[in-house]
Design goal:
182 residues; mainly alpha; Arp2/3 complex 21 kDa subunit ARPC3
Length: 182
């Protein structure tokens, strides 16, 4: 098989949706529903399953990868807010931080994939970095200097490394399969 054919066979089509496209809102709603249900189930298994396995990140990232930064942003913005309204999770004290972080994840992964045309794994790694950087900035601004953003981000990474590893393992093939289905 030639290298050009190999590159074509592993390339994943990208379909960015615009705010004027009604499909964006239908898809975002479906991803938000999944993103509320899966963490809720995880928290019922164990209270630390959410911060350890990061289930909210998965559907935010998939929305951005498959449908662009707008879908990623909408899912990242509304998932924690709706989840809090439905289940009380994430707790109010960290809700603003998680909302900012997940919005950054969705926006970044969609932008890196759609605008910069990065491969899935690079867009995912870039979004992980940008999401954590944004979380640090949110902690700095929202805590008014009372919390150390570097220590906070380090503690989140230290606890969430299994979830980050899961994302790196399952999201690229899952994005390929779902992209081919749509």
């Amino acid at each position: 098989m030639s290298s050009q054919t190999e590159a074509t066979s592993i390339a994943v089509p990208f379909r960015a949706l615009k705010f004027s496209d009604a499909r964006l809102y239908a898809i975002a709603s479906a991803f938000i529903a999944l993103d509320v249900l899966v963490p809720w189930a995880c928290h019922h298994i164990h209270p630390l399953a959410g911060p350890t396995f990061l289930p909210m990140h998965i559907f935010v990232i998939l929305a951005g990868l498959l449908f662009g930064w707008r879908a990623g942003l909408l899912v990242g913005l509304f998932t924690p807010l709706i989840s809090f309204g439905v289940s009380g999770m994430p707790v109010l004290a960290i809700l603003p931080r998680i909302t900012v972080e997940l919005s950054a994840y969705g926006l970044a992964v969609g932008f890196l994939r759609g605008k910069l045309n990065l491969r899935i794994i690079w867009a995912l790694l870039g979004a992980m970095f940008i999401g954590r950087l944004t979380l640090g900035l949110a902690v700095l601004l929202l805590s008014r200097g009372e919390a150390n953003p570097l220590l906070y981000v380090w503690s989140v990474v230290e606890q969430g490394w299994p979830g980050m590893l899961i994302q790196l393992i399952i999201i690229p093939p899952l994005a390929r399969v779902l992209s081919n289905r749509w």
